[in-house]
Amino acid sequence: MPERPGPAERPARQNTTFPSAGATAHGYLALPPSGRGPGVLVIQEWWGLTDHIADVADRLAAEGFVALAPDLYGGSVAHDSDEALRMLKALPVSRGVELLSGAVGHLLSLPEVTSDTAGAVGFCMGGGFVLYLAAVEPRVSAAVPFYGVVRDEMPDFSGLRARILGHYGERDRSIPPQRVEELAETIRRQSGTAPDFRLYPAGHAFFNDRRPSHHPDSAARAWESTVAFLHRQLD
């Protein structure tokens, strides 16, 4: 993982509210040092909008992006896996996608955003939402699921317009490589576009440097390729 930006390089950050899906949504917004750049959504893990997710938004902002992390739990953060599972189950996929589509619209409406389409980066639960969102939201042109978990029914990828770069762990017991390949084949068959799914010698949540599962080398490689991919698709 690259070093975090120093005080002089640190992007501007702020909590923000915006209309989404008929309600007032909350989130965390990080602006690049230049004040302008392409727009990227950062979608939370099942824990909620944690310091780690805000830190990812900061890192993307330091790389030149306007990063918005919507709060899908309305301010709640889970403290253990049982609580996280309850909160995940209380958020229907359709409602999450609706809220995220509203966040895309808000992000692209910001005067600081220079791109006509948005990127979406998500982790675990958020990685699954990246796939669901990209399947239905034409304003998303770059989708990056980190160990994305597809819940309930598989989305219909026949209308997919986004390019997909995905990061998965070879030792992830919840999403074994066979499931990753099955997902890739479904996307290829339905959309006619092959996703770029990459496997790393790591387990689940290898990017999260706040957890024991963190695998620094895999996280650094995935981050470098993600930043380059987003710039290629959005600049």
From TrEMBL:
Region: Disordered, residue numbers: 1-24
Keyword Repeat tagged: no
All copies of domain Dienelactone hydrolase, residue ranges: 27-232
GO molecular function: hydrolase activity
Manganese is among the record's keywords: no
UniProt xrefs under Gene3D superfamilies: alpha/beta hydrolase (3.40.50.1820)
Keywords: Hydrolase
A Pfam family this chain is assigned to: DLH
Listed name of the protein: Dienelactone hydrolase family protein
Organism: Streptomyces kebangsaanensis
